[in-house]
């Protein structure tokens, strides 16, 4: 029985060659791809980037994408063909952080919402069911409730993938059949956007999700160079996790304490704090108490953390609308910032649960590898 549209995200099944996978993606959800295109075109246009300049900026990213992995560029071509949109629009979706924040010619936007998020990982020894639990609130534009999709990808040369992402995008968060899981959080520093654009964050995330274990996923990250900062929470189902705070030129790490790892949107590693200027807290000081409140909620259930406790921690609304769970509020260019989705992952079981618009409904829909 199909689920009501207002509760679930569409599942897109992908297999075959890179281009064919992309074509299947675009053809399965063309209306959602079109919404993604419209969202980011509109944001860039309102920041002074017209259609021709957008195309030029997007296609300037093509060589970096191809250098990193030509299969990814083929997959983007396939999405464009399947959804019948321009290739530059698919590049923009996959390079949206670099495109929206990384060009000096863009008009400044003091109230532009960052891709926020609160993430957590509970190791097996701290969980009630003895399995690793990985969860995440995605805070971004409310419009993305109608661009989100779940991708299930069968691969011949590596683990199969189950991902939650924006239509048109190659990755956001997810897990694979080898037990690797990954989520990401927005970070900023004084070193961002100072070097030529290199590997888009989306592609690094995708390649990490293709790794056959946590070690090789980290090797992917250390082999990449970045245009801007980002935080990545990485886990292995059998019982390992690490938080990786990525500056453009360096990676800092945090490991679980008492079997628990939590990260919001400010630098936590003491070494990073001494070396970098955090540029995000002025706009998002809520990150400080989101971090503390989530840690405290899990600490109160030490050694017996279950999904109900995690759901409650990620549904903490104090102070509304700026809690761990963000209720919709106006953002720049008449858009709305909110928690788009809450995602729960149990990689050992190959199961993901997602609540769409969790500020309205805490109904979690199950998706399986």
Provide structural commentary.
This protein has 369 residues and is α+β, with helices and mostly antiparallel strands. The protein is 32% helix and 23% strand. The strands form two sheets. The protein has an eight-stranded mixed beta sheet with strand order 1-4-5-6-7-8-9-10. Strands 2, 3, 11, 12, 13, 14 and 15 form a seven-stranded antiparallel beta sheet that branches. The model has no long low-confidence stretch (mean pLDDT 93).
Key features?
alpha+beta, globular, single chain, 369 residues, Arc Repressor Mutant, subunit A, 2 domains
For this structure, what is the CATH homologous superfamily of the largest domain? Penicillin V Acylase, Chain A
H/E element string? EHHHHHHHEEEEEEHHEEEEHHHEEEE
Write down the overall mean pLDDT.
Answer: 93
Strand content: 15-25%
Give the number of DSSP strands.
Answer: 15
| Secondary structure: helix percent | 25-40%
The CATH architecture of the largest domain would be 4-Layer Sandwich
Q: Could you give the distance between the termini?
A: 19 Å
Runs in which pLDDT lies below 50 for 5 or more consecutive residues are: none
Strand order of the largest sheet: 1-4-5-6-7-8-9-10
